[in-house]
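User: I'm preparing a small set of examples for a lab meeting where we compare how different chains pack in three dimensions. I only have the primary sequence for this one, and I'd like the structure in token form so I can line it up with the others. Please keep the answer compact; I'll paste it straight into my notes.
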Amino acid sequence: MDHTQKEKKLESAELEKSKSHIIVEIIEYIPNSVVIKTIIKKSTGNISIMSFDSGEGLTEKTSPFDTFAQIIEGKAEIVIDKISNLIESGQGIIIPANSPNYIKPNGRFKMILTIIKSGYE
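Assistant: Understood. Below is the structure token output for the 121-residue chain.
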């Protein structure tokens, strides 16, 4: 399987505070791309929203922090420690710190990633 990705980052400005947002509409699909938009970025962690065009995924990586991945549109196959997990819209999964993980292409989808950095000092 080819895990090649074309990553395009959009503005990293946080969303306007004290205003409601339709989360699934914050980010659009771009053909043949993975798009990432930062919602909140702090020294203790961050929240990002991502869109994956059909056939796009992320290569294997390991983070020193726990990460919560929540699918908000479509479905994704998230592999953690060589165990495959099919996560559908409305579902989420915690990727444990220091666990090798990657996202296999499975059609178009959008997700929110929340990384918590505190507690690891």
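A couple of notes for your slides: DSSP finds no helices and nine strands in the chain. The chain has one domain: 7-11+36-116.

User: Perfect, thanks.
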